């Protein structure tokens, strides 16, 4: 079975699962709850998006420069320390991470943002390092042969060529964060987890799914938008090269 057939089957399966989930939500009364409480849904969605946006913004701000830093020959020996530090944020379950950070920062919004930030570092950091490390050495040699400085090689050769891999890490991190942000409710961080955990507490599947469905829609929408944005910022030549590969 070739790659395109597997991709088509995966897409079909994903669409079938989403349709089944929406049918379940309709039967459970989730859409009726959403229609009757639009203000609550908008308020909680705003909180959810704010948590994701702030934590991911700071994750990109830290992980991308850090990834570039440890790919410099002089600092390459420190990459295992940085990667393993980020591994901690990814491997510790989000709920346990929230509990650990809560012991330092207490309950509230700031704890949720810090935990989500820590949790989203690894995909961005690892992809930044992998993207730059896997650039064909002949490209760098050509730049050096043309007399380019180290900064010029970084900005004009390394980052543009590593950009698709780096953006894939950022997309992965943001989509994971959209789901993980539901746990922020447990420490007073707000968000759509409010509806999910309230539904669980009172055994009402309709309310629970009225929080879960918007999270799924947000994750798919954000991934779609970022995919389109990626096509805009990555040069056509690199896109054609990836398609050929």
Automatic annotation (TrEMBL):
GO terms for cellular component: plasma membrane. It is found in: Cell membrane; Membrane. The keyword Cell cycle does not apply. Coiled coil: none annotated. It is a multi-pass membrane protein. GO terms for biological process: glycine betaine transport; transmembrane transport. The chain crosses the membrane at residues 12-31, 51-70, 82-101, 107-125, 174-201, 207-226. Its main location: membrane. This is ABC transporter permease. It comes from Paenisporosarcina antarctica.
